[in-house]
From TrEMBL:
Residues 17-57 form the Transposase IS66 C-terminal domain. The lineage of its organism: Bacteria, Bacillati, Bacillota, Bacilli, Bacillales. This is Transposase IS66 C-terminal domain-containing protein. InterPro entries: IS66_C (IPR039552). Pfam families: DDE_Tnp_IS66_C. It comes from the Bacteria.
């Protein structure tokens, strides 16, 4: 999107992919990303079973990551919050 370097473009692409996959799996991108940032440092990345538990389609994810059915009404608000959150993450990562 607003990437000045290949590294920035790669970071943007990764974030976009994670967010869109979360949305396709009816997760709140904000809560799912928070869960990942809290969980990933503590797991063994060489252990496939541990990684499978944090993937967006896993049934082991905490309920706070899931989007309630009535959230369709607030879809635009959620999208705006998500965009703001992504920009905050990218800013923190690259600055």
């Amino acid at each position: 999107m607003f990437s000045n370097t290949p590294r920035g473009a790669r970071g943007s692409a990764i974030m976009y992919s994670v967010v869109e996959t979360a949305k396709e799996n009816h997760l709140s991108p904000h809560h799912y990303l928070l869960y990942l940032f809290e969980t990933l440092p503590a797991i063994d990345l060489n252990n496939k079973e541990e990684i499978d538990k944090v993937l967006p389609w896993s049934t082991d994810l905490p309920s706070r990551c899931r989007v309630p059915k009535k959230s369709e009404v607030n879809k635009k608000q959620l999208q705006n919050q998500l965009l703001l959150y992504i920009f905050e993450l990218l800013y923190a990562y690259f600055v």
